[in-house]
Amino acid sequence: MLKKILLTGLALATWVGMTTSANAQDNKPFKIALIASKTGPSEAYAHDTERGMRLGMEYLTQNTMMVNGRKIELIVKDDQMKPELSKAMLTEALADDKADIAVGTSWSGGALAMVPVAEEYKKF
Questions:
Q1: For the chain, what is the domain count?
Q2: Which of 18, 7, 5, 38 is nearest to 100 (CA)?
Q3: Residue 79: is it exposed, middle or buried by C-beta count within 10 angstroms (0-12/13-18/19+)?
Q4: Domain that includes residue 102, residue range
Q5: Of the candidates 62, 63, 73, 68, which has an alpha carbon nearest to the alpha carbon of residue 100?
Q6: Is residue 79 part of a domain?
Q7: Is the CB of residue 95 less than 8 Å from the CB of residue 112?
Q8: Which of the four, 73, 93, 100, 102, has the lowest number of CB atoms within 10 Å?
Q9: Whole-structure pTM value
Q10: pLDDT for 62-89, tens place per residue?
Q11: Where does the pLDDT of residue 21 fall: very low under 50, low under 70, confident under 90, or very high at 90 and above?
């Protein structure tokens, strides 16, 4: 799990490094959606994933939760380990919450359900 969290942090750092200075000046928060199975059989794993994300972001930003002058906002969605909810939660995160990137889910059925949404919104 630590490897997954570190890879997520590396992906975040890479993406943030690619943002333009114009993005830093608009002062909108940098929104990260975490889709996790917070209820159901993977509840404990989802809790650890969320905690690891928060700790990783704190470490990456030296406890400022800011990157390129933008506040980082973590939006957590519960897919209840149901593929239709994985897809719906990602759609909600990208369309309604305007998430910049999304992380999750940790199971293949949900991940496969989310692929068309990520492609539609051109987000990873």
A1: 1
A2: 18
A3: buried
A4: 2-12+29-121
A5: 73
A6: yes
A7: no
A8: 73
A9: 0.80
A10: 999 999 899 999 999 999 999 999 999 9
A11: very low
